[in-house]
Amino acid sequence: LITMIITVTVIYGAVQVVAQGTLASLSSSATPLADAAAGFGGEALALILTIGATISILGTNSNTMMMGPRFLFALARDGYGPKILAQVHPRFHTPAASILCQGLIALGLALSGSFVQLALLSMTTRL
After folding, report:
1. Per-residue pLDDT at 65
2. Which residues of 19-51 are buried (b: 16+ CB within 10 A; e: fewer)?
3. Counting beta carbons within 10 angstroms of the beta carbon of residue 127, is it exposed (0 to 12), middle (13 to 18) or buried (19 or more)?
4. pLDDT at residue 88 in the model
5. For residue 63, what pLDDT is reported?
6. Which residues contact 86 (CB under 8 A, 6 or more apart)?
7. Model confidence pLDDT, tens digit, residues 13-71
8. How far is CA 79 from CA 56, 68, 104, 105, in A?
9. Using CA atoms, how far apart are residues 29 and 120, in angstroms rounded to an integer?
């Protein structure tokens, strides 16, 4: 786990250094890493980076949707949340109420804000 964290941190740091070194107007670009990749390695590299970023975002979203209900369930089971969130579905053995609650919260947030607002909210809740 520590090796993975260090490896990912080094890769992200290297990507940031290369992006800053190859794209002078990085802060004013709408797609800074893809633009830097295009300048550094052509359109093919920009496409690969964009696909990689999309997969990474989908993985993070999937993780959040899979783990969020488990956190709600655990908190409720330990007495720190509504008892209904601690209930387990009799057939599927999953925290169905917690999954529904997480889904409704995510849907409400997705429909109420912009990407920038949601990204800031995500960072704030993680901190």
Report:
1. 81
2. beeebeeeeeeeebbbbbbbeeeeeeebeebee
3. exposed
4. 93
5. 83
6. 73, 76, 77, 95, 98
7. 988 888 887 777 777 888 888 888 887 788 898 899 889 888 988 888 888 888 889 99
8. 34, 17, 22, 21
9. 19
- With bands split at pLDDT 50, 70 and 90, how would you rate the model's confidence at 111? confident
Chain-centroid distance of CA 45 in Å reads 23
Can you tell me the distance from the alpha carbon of 127 to that of 122, in angstroms, rounded to the nearest whole number?
9
DSSP symbol at 42: -
Task: Give, in order, the Cα–Cα distances in Å from 61 to each of 10, 56, 103, 119, 122.
Answer: 23, 9, 12, 12, 11
**CA 20/CA 25 separation, integer angstroms:** 9
Decide: 57 and 48 in contact? Cβ < 8 Å.
no
Half-sphere exposure of 118 toward its Cβ, with a 13 Å CA cutoff? Answer: 12
